[in-house]
Each structure stands twice: as structure tokens, then as C-alpha cells.
Design goal:
Elements lengths: L15 E7 L7 H4 L5 E2 L4 E17 L8 E16 L7 H4 L5 E8 L12 E9 L3 E2 L9 E8 L4 E5 L3
Length: 164
């Protein structure tokens, strides 16, 4: 008997890009993503500092005399817990993700970070508003970092195609 197919994997290292654009701008437009108002954020985050958390609620579906309670998917909640380096750079997360500001995050997975954003590529887009910036405790031989919650304000678009 032959082995079943083993799908090829995609390495995470170097194959991710996060670009923020001001709320209201088209976060799928290559022109906007590569323009002057876009903020490249990927390498400002710490290695474990970009946590996209989605929790899904369950809806019970009980039936008369059935010993097992069935269920269906219910609503979901998406939130981003992020940690980034403290920086005064004008394109840094610290300077741009100020409490109360609204952004759209374009998240391109599985493509080398250095690859130019082009029409036809796919990305996820989340509309967010920034929570409080929380300075993390300093550590010996460490960097000054900031943790923050980014709250999702509109349904996230998954695997959307970039346009001109």
C-alpha cells in the first residue's frame, strides 16, 4: 500500500507581512498599501508578539429524549494581543498604534516578506481600534517592549485578493 500524499508546508520565518493603513482606506489596494500613509509593522513585533485569538461560542442543540446534547457553531470573538519594541521611529507600532486610533491591518501569509505587494495576492484584513499601550517590565539583557490589545471593529475578511 502506498503512503498517502504528504502536503508541502510553508515556513513561517520570513513569510509574513503586516501593513497598517488608516481606517477608511482600502486595505486591499496595492497603491494604498505601498503609499505614504501605510505603516509596515511586521518587524516591530517581538517573536511571540502577534497573537490573533479567535474564540468561538457553542450553541446547544438539545433534542427530546436524546442522551447526547448536540451543538452548532455560534458567534465568535476575535482580538489581537500584541507586543512590540518601544521605538520613536515614525513608522513604529509605538508611534502609530496609539490608544483610540483606528486602523485596518493587512496580513499577508505565506509569501516572503520582501516580495512586493502585487495585485492578485491574498491577505486577511482586520479593522481594529487600539487599546491602551502597556509598558512591559524591564528585563536584564532585554529590550523595552509594549503590550497592547487591538479590538476588532468590523468582520475580518479572510483570503481577500489584493487590487490595484
Amino acid at each position: 500500500m502506498a503512503l498517502e500524499n504528504v502536503p508541502a508546508s510553508i515556513a513561517a520565518d520570513g513569510n509574513f507581512r503586516i501593513t497598517a493603513v488608516p481606517s477608511g482606506a482600502n486595505a486591499l489596494s496595492v497603491a494604498i498599501l505601498t503609499g505614504g500613509t501605510a505603516v509596515p509593522l511586521t518587524y516591530g513585533f517581538t517573536p511571540s508578539g502577534f497573537n490573533r485569538n479567535i474564540t468561538e461560542n457553542s450553541v446547544d442543540d438539545p433534542r427530546l429524549t436524546l442522551k447526547q446534547v448536540l451543538s452548532r457553531p455560534g458567534t465568535s470573538t476575535e482580538v489581537y494581543e500584541v507586543q512590540y519594541v518601544d521605538s520613536v521611529d515614525t513608522k513604529s507600532a509605538k508611534v502609530n498604534l496609539v490608544e483610540g486610533t483606528a486602523w485596518s491591518l493587512n496580513m499577508r501569509y505565506g509569501v516572503d516578506n520582501a516580495t512586493v505587494l502585487t495585485v492578485g495576492q491574498k491577505a486577511d484584513v482586520a479593522s481594529i481600534v487600539c487599546g491602551k499601550q502597556r509598558r512591559d517590565a524591564p528585563t536584564a539583557n532585554g529590550l523595552q517592549t509594549i503590550s497592547q490589545t487591538l479590538y476588532v471593529t468590523a468582520p475580518t475578511v479572510t483570503d481577500a485578493v489584493l487590487v490595484a
